[in-house]
Amino acid sequence: MFNTVEELIKSLTETFGPSGEEETVRTMIANLVRDRADRVFEDALGNLYAVKESNRPRIMISAHMDEIGVMVTNIDENGFLRIAPLGGVNPIMLLGQRIRFKNGLTGTVYHEKFKELKELDWSKLYADIGQRDAAAAENNVKIGDSACLAQPFNNLPGGRCLAKAMDDRVGCAVLIETLRRLPERLPQEVCFVFSIQEELGLRGAKTAAYSYEPDFGIAVDVTLVGDTPKAPTMAVSLGQGPAIKVKDSSILCHPRVRQLMVETAENNNISHQLEVLERGGTDAGAIHLSREGVPSGAISIPCRYVHSPSEMIDLKDVLNAVELMVKLLTKEWPFSEESNVF
Amino acid sequence: MLSELADIRGVSGDETKIRRFISEKLADRGIENSVDTMGNLIARKNRGKFETLPLLSAHMDEVGLMITGIRQGGLLNFMPVGGIDSRVLVAKRVKIGREGLTGVIGAKPIHLQKKEEQQKPYKEESLYIDAGFNSRGEAEKYICIGDYAAFDVNCTKMDKGFYRGKAFDDRAGCLVLLKLLLENNSLCFNAVFTVQEEVGTRGAMIAAYALRPQKALVVEATASADTPETEKEMSSTVLGKGPAISLMDRTILVDREMRDELAGCAVRAGIPFQFRRFTGAGTEGGAIAYSREGVKTAVIAVPCRYIHSPHSVIKESDLQATVSLTRAWLEDNQ
Amino acid sequence: MNEDKIVNALMELSEMTAVSGGEEAAVTAVARYLRPYVTDIKRDRFGNLLAFKPAENATGKTELTIALVAHADEIGAMVTKIEPEGFLRFTPIGGLDPRTLPGQAVTVHGKNKFPGVIGAAPPHLLTEKERGETTPMEKLFVDIGLDQDQAVDEVKVGDLISLEQHPVVLKNGKMMTGKSLDNRAGISVLIACAAGLSRICHSVDVVFVASLQEEVGLRGAVTAAYGLNPDLAVAIDATHGDAPELEEGRFFKLGEGPVIAIGPNLHPALVDRLEKTADKHFLSVQREPIPGHSGTDAWAFQVAREGIPTALLSIPLRYMHTSVEMINLDDLFNCVKLLGYFIGGLNRTFLEDMKKC
């Protein structure tokens, strides 16, 4: 167990878990939540569920375990690796970066000669793990192995933090901490889903929502901000509280779910902001289109430099998000099985 | 049988002929099969005691063209069905509609083009199909808007076990499934010959939903660039090195366990295999893997040069190795 | 329902606001129009409106269920930021062309409805280069005349913005122009069809679906198709009308009838039946070849669950996704007639015959 949320985030972000290789982080989370839920289990694709049983409605809360990364697609005779992106990775961002494999092996990413930056694409990149030839390289990695970025967690004065994989281990941390603070018995059933392969297109949440059949859905993820120099127009800033999502490319959040979140925040004086994200999606996008439809919303942690080795968040936002989640889940949600309109 | 399968016209949305061919072959051997609302052909090999059977899938449809308009003078406008590289279209022969009328894809002759025009590939809009009609009225007697056209190509055996022909993507996969269904074996499995893969893996979506497999294997044809002008590490797959096991593509990240299982089968049975080193493009893998509660799914493919063009090239030994690997995988999953 | 009443319904519905995600008022109005002709009206969990009209025939038995689906939502925009001077920045909801926006009248749906206008820097102050280029969406803004303090009180990030325009029937009495005719024209077809079917015998159950959030990715249709799982479905939407400089074969003449789509997305037996029905009753129709994604609710219905044979009927419409969309009312009336004859002639045998196709 961790003493502070900060330690929890440090540990989660430093754990290995690119899309498709979520096993290490899944095991870690399963151990953290096992005693706090009535049922903890995995499905065929690798989503992790932690259910606090109660009456309907059933609320599914999803945060994704996976992070962006790269996959080895070729090993040449001199031991150099060719790589392909897992999720939305900008090749420019990788230049000179360290990467780390599941077995702890590290390497760096560099580029072949090019004249102009715009020529830089994946075919010009390679990874070097310091091996002399193909055989030596193959002793350490195989084609199809994945690597994540290797930056450690750093604390900055004033309560902001830097790490790789804040997207979305910080969301996982919110779920774990919420689960720790919830009372024994809730007025409705809540299922915490730590989903896989979000970065490849909300894939884990899609099958998890089909399988759990929730009445409501909430995603907890990071969102972009508009508070950096010459940032695109966006009214979300670091440190102004969790963002209650109105829209992104994957969902127009259900107005009543959003309203419930806003009311809960206002009634409990929890600082918050509203989020309209022009590009990007979250698990809520997959959940709300499951089966006959699931009224869904999302709570986002404002995050700078998303999909880079140095994603920045403000701890205050995380603590406020936990507070908001706890208040939201301990109050009774309006629901009736007969009425089709929430 | 490869030639027969590959020569039949079956552009996405117009799979009737190829479906009939396959279904007759199955009926001849008394193998149960049925057709669903979109035209997927579903076959069941042996009645096992199992609750759920492993699923094999291969798509019947091929890329092609659709007639979208008839010009005043009787020339036909078209649009591609599925992803066709517009560079391969000009000066090819096609067969149009149910009757299979012959036409050619024409363009302004090079002699009459300005120098700048000659430097650039033909734009799709500037091409047309000429089926020899002299007026719109004459064309309308034989052609309907919405008619499909497929490349007019006959599969040919080349030297050293290579085949040249159209639609190996994915009649090669169909052949693998058909061989395993028709041969004498005691394997229990479902096989689906799907429609509309090339326009968004549509058939596989509803087939996976209906059949609810726990494990699935997609048998495809995949691009190979083991040719001049492509660097070795960018070739994705190589002809003659056996079926390519996918790591990921745009639609699916192949389950690691499934990948290892396939590689294990191949090693044990001494079947050559390679990994598909390209991670883009799409297959039915995603439509099946993320169906309902999720399905453990893998994708293997016969390497194929010049895919989605009128003449693609595959190697017989790869085809045979793909049959062997698929069979070995089924044996492991009984 | 006579033609005047249909036109009046369309006039009322066209002017209502139903930007994707904010369709409530319009859907309520659609329900009001449908209620006299159906036995039951529901909203599904996504919010789609479902109106049920059971078979009415001598045997009292139903042969199959068909869904007629038209999307109720329209394109629009959403507030992303309130600038220090009280101007509002926005992001599009659905496919908006930024070139059509400067000088456009809009309504901002904040605490109240605020009339506003989309502003841009005046041409006098632009450089030569900027004048030759499209002003991108992020440089445009909405002016509702409030200063920042007032604006922050009245408008929030996430509030919807709709295009504003009154519908008008043009001089010849056949053409109508206005906003959101994509797809209120389709919705009017549903209403008129429900009215028409109550005067004839039909052996199939009909569900009228006013779907939500089509313009942002067919989202309502995905859940409605799953929930209803009908035997057949027909989507009713708009397609591109003729205008100068458009390539032949990809646009359709206004006044020459509804457009029947053909292609992988559409079941050939349904297409065939619709064309034969039109032929038999001397209704003029057009044919639209669609080699891939139809971009309509039909795309979502076709692959729901184990697959639903689907057709698409479109009303030719000019200037799509602007506030000056234009249709010919005759196309709408003919679409209603075609659907009436088609549904009147449907029975179980048709489903059996389809399988042989």
Please name the defining characteristics of this protein.
heterotrimer, A: 342 residues, alpha+beta, Aminopeptidase, Elongation Factor Tu (Ef-tu), domain 3, 2 domains, six-stranded antiparallel beta barrel, 9 helices, B: 334 residues, 17 strands, 28% helix, 25% strand
The termini of chain A sit apart by: 38 Å
Shape of chain A: globular
Provide the CATH topology of the largest domain in chain A.
Aminopeptidase
Low-confidence sequence ranges of chain A: none
Q: Please write the string of helix (H) and strand (E) elements of chain B.
A: HHEEEEEEEHEHEEEHEHEEHEHEEH
Q: Major sheet of chain B, described briefly?
A: 8 strands, mixed
Provide the residue-averaged pLDDT of chain B: 94
Task: Give the CATH class of the largest domain in chain A.
Answer: Alpha Beta
Which architecture of the largest domain in chain B does the CATH hierarchy give at level 2?
A: 3-Layer(aba) Sandwich
Strand percent estimate of chain B: 25-35%
Q: Tell me the count of domains of chain B.
A: 2
Give the rounded overall mean pLDDT of chain A: 96
**Helical content class of chain A:** 25-40%
- What structural class results from the helix and strand content of chain A? alpha+beta
CATH level 4 superfamily of the largest domain in chain B: Zn peptidases
Neighbour order of strands in the largest sheet of chain A: 1-2-12-3-13-16-14-15
DSSP helical segment count of chain B: 9
Please explain how this structure is put together.
The complex is a heterotrimer of chains A (342), B (334) and C (357). With 342 residues, chain A is α+β, with helices and mostly antiparallel strands. Chain A folds into 2 domains: 230 residues, Zn peptidases (Aminopeptidase, 3-Layer(aba) Sandwich); 81 residues, Beta Barrel (Elongation Factor Tu (Ef-tu), domain 3). Helix content of chain A is 27%, strand content 26%. Chain A is built from 9 helices and 17 strands. In chain A, strands 1-2-12-3-13-16-14-15 form an 8-stranded mixed beta sheet, sandwiched between helices. In chain A, β4 and β5 form a beta hairpin. Chain B is of the alpha+beta class and 334 residues long. Chain B folds into 2 domains: 228 residues, Aminopeptidase (3-Layer(aba) Sandwich); 88 residues, Elongation Factor Tu (Ef-tu), domain 3, CATH 2.40.30.40. Chain B has 9 helices and 17 strands. In chain B, α5 packs across α9. The model of chain B has no long low-confidence stretch (mean pLDDT 94). Chain C folds into 2 domains: 249 residues, Aminopeptidase; 88 residues, Elongation Factor Tu (Ef-tu), domain 3, CATH 2.40.30. Helix content of chain C is 29%, strand content 25%. Chain C contains 10 helices and 17 strands. In chain C, the strands form 3 sheets. An 8-stranded mixed beta sheet of chain C has the order 1-2-12-3-13-16-14-15, sandwiched between helices. A 6-stranded antiparallel beta sheet of chain C has the order 5-4-9-6-7-8. Chain C has a 3-stranded antiparallel beta sheet with strand order 10-11-17. In chain C, a hairpin with a 5-residue loop joins β10 and β11. The interface between B and C is medium-sized, with 31 and 24 residues.
